[in-house]
């Protein structure tokens, strides 16, 4: 930061220093007009000074850009790491009430990018511009202190206008970030559960919710444009009026011989550059305003201290658990108590089974023992010590958890098994033994890379049963004193369940174990059974004791219902065998295959279909349309706003022209200062002062027009881009989502960042380009008219500057792509950790997940050093060539004057006007990093929008799926998933589910049961054979109409962040209140909603 600050300061001061030399040169022109040889000698001297200034700018700009880019990357990396560390340290309840998981992903993506932009390039720019502002006034005081004092009087007014503008922008930015965060949460939620969305044909509903959230941010963006336009317009209004005052007072001083023309113009130029620099700092101030809001979101989590940090560690643990008069309600629903006066004692080394209806609080007990939450009343004790007095990390190290929904992370099987236990403390043999006991070793060793096999996003490379066995092995490897088994075998087929249950029975010996189970076989083996009803223990005893109560006991009634249901299920299975089932299922498919769910043979609580997703992994690359980043195409997308763009462009052109006219006025005044007649000088200066007053009014009006309409264009385009990207993503077939680059976290990141980068390039950046183009056109025209020879020489060197900058852009483009891709990988790691916070917390894996996140950020940090060197060096070369062109132009101007081809007045006007245009060109070139990011973002946008889905969901020629009887038949079906085309999942499978009948699919985990469900829903297409619905090929039906006729209940239930009513009616939004209540009642959920 020190070197970067020094570079920015030197770079910023160099232009006022150049102007001081220029003032001496001008005075040499005026003082030695009658001595051409002396004049040329002095001009050559000052031309060499200009080269020295150019070299200083080369070195300082190199230091400024490279150091600030590296500093910004390093600090943002540290901020991201600290943020994720802090987020993973928080209590689980914190994410129920204060922060959503989607907020964390948005902070790591968009908020961190805003902060990085502010503390790198924008902070360097601010220091640079402020140095220019200060140096300009210093030069002004040394050249003509009277003029500097007059200028100083209006500086507070300029600062006041800038401060008011920044305050307004800060408030609007905070509101905009909140709205965009809400929209990002909606998109991420839909993408994370895309199978549910598509199965229930909820794409349009998700699209409407996303669009409505974006509309809120869009309206706030309109107001930001008004605030920005008035702020900059007011600044330039004040600056031009100030210069009018300076021109008049400068003439007054010259007429009274208090100064000469050169010194007077030095003050004016210095103040002019200082004022422009102050205005140019406004975009940096706007970036800081956005970054302050983003940083507040980040540091709110970093600074938040969890309540469970302190505590003691026990020397030994016997495992006695007690819950005394516990009351509990989830923080998100404090008015809906789950446990009331709950008391339970688990003797050390014993196994207690918790049974009860759905919603009775069984899983809540597990959450309280893990201290995901603390009870609102009562106490939970371990060996006589309240859990609140124990060190949380130590407590969770004593507990092994296998939850109902197995959670694996996108790393190797080995790393997933070692989760919660340091790799140094577990040997390969111990890990394999734990996997063997969990009945997982046999399928792991058959995988291509064994224990080093990557499991994919959310473990989707494996079937549901395979994931659960790895989760059980993970708990076994931890070797805890207390076991919490929350339906640990629910995802396994009957054969695997038996083997794993035997392993669990051995593993539970000598350990205090709480088992939540719906199967009678599991409950019978427990030492004690606790029946939960109404948030309390209604019965407790051994299986035999509770069954002895007969029909008077709640437990006995539950067991009778289960036995009857199992008998009905067995009868259904025997009567629903397919007429032909030639698919081999004797051994499981050990590679990833779609387990959209395994049917549970027990129907104790509900009929569950598991929703284990289709595969993820080495999927073939999708060919996208090349050249989609064209600005012309983006302009066509923005065609509804062409009228706004024309008005905005007109405002930009007028603002740019005003700068050229302003330079011409100053150069004209310079020639007037050397006029011999004082009265003529006074009249001419008054005329130019009146002109500046008129220009100040125009600047106020047209700056407002420029930013109001450009922001409207940008906001509308951003909303349209996000909507089209989201709509295109929702149309993609399921195989597209299985690719690693299309995981939910990465797609959500592209939605958030790509549109923002496009907005940055199209909004303010295009505005600056149009403005500076107008400046150059006006300046070049004036130069050619005044003295075409000098103008051509100055213009001839411009391609050197442009060529150097193009080279700089090429290098920037290459490096920026790698950096963005690396950040996307880091975001994916963070997204998994936060989405599965309970698993991370239960296994004390916060440091390990944070370590994986930190490792994924090291690559961008290393490459940023080279990126900064290339960017800084390229920009420095461009700046040096710019000042070299000034030196050449001045030497040639002197030569023209010496030989009588031109006079001093024309030469200096051409030079000053073109100098201002060159400064505008240099400003435009500094926008190259933004356009590089915008260009890459545009390619990503159009690649997403242009992709043609392989399964058209809205084929108008397809048959409507109305009045279906419900007969489903598979004829000689083969299936291999696109990610693993060489692995056959189904082989010549034929089966029929008759209309109105129940067909049960059974078999080992991974044999392809859920693949059948995926084929019926057309998540995938068979590689050969046909899937028939009512005797017609399923591909001939309209896809969404077909899915409307199918209902699915996944094993891993997911509810959207909406009301219970909306979740029940998700698949049928037009359902009446009575229909929703009836559906809830049939699902045995209506009573729990009322409570």
Describe the model:
The chain is of the alpha/beta class and 1091 residues long. The protein is built from 34 helices and 14 strands. It has a six-stranded mixed beta sheet, sandwiched between helices. The two termini are 59 Å apart. Residues 569-588 have a biased composition (Low complexity). Belongs to the ABC transporter superfamily. ABCB family. Multidrug resistance exporter (TC 3.A.1.201) subfamily. The chain crosses the membrane at residues 46-70, 126-145, 151-169, 229-249, 261-282, 642-665, 685-710, 766-784, 790-807, 872-895, 907-928.
Key structural traits:
1091 residues, alpha/beta, ABC transporter transmembrane region fold, Rossmann fold, 2 domains, six-stranded mixed sheet, four-stranded antiparallel sheet, 34 helices, 7% strand, elongated, auxin efflux transmembrane transporter activity
Question: Strand order across the biggest sheet?
Answer: 6-7-8-3-9-10
Which CATH architecture of the largest domain? Up-down Bundle
Instruction: From the 3D structure, determine the CATH topology of the largest domain.
Output: ABC transporter transmembrane region fold
Strand content: 5-15%
CATH class of the largest domain: Mainly Alpha
> How many beta-strand runs?
14
Mean pLDDT: 79
CATH H-level superfamily title of the largest domain:
ABC transporter type 1, transmembrane domain
Report how far apart the termini are: 59 Å
SS-derived structural category:
alpha/beta
As residue ranges, the low-confidence spans are 575-629, 811-819
Shape verdict: elongated
What is the total number of structural domains? 2
Largest sheet: 6 strands, mixed
Radius of gyration: 36 Å
**Percent of residues in helices:** 55-70%
Question: How many separate helices?
Answer: 34
Transmembrane segments: 46-70, 126-145, 151-169, 229-249, 261-282, 642-665, 685-710, 766-784, 790-807, 872-895, 907-928
Domain ABC transporter: 323-559
Domain ABC transmembrane type-1: 3-290, 646-933
Keywords: ATP-binding, Glycoprotein, Membrane, Nucleotide-binding, Repeat, Transmembrane, Transmembrane helix, Transport
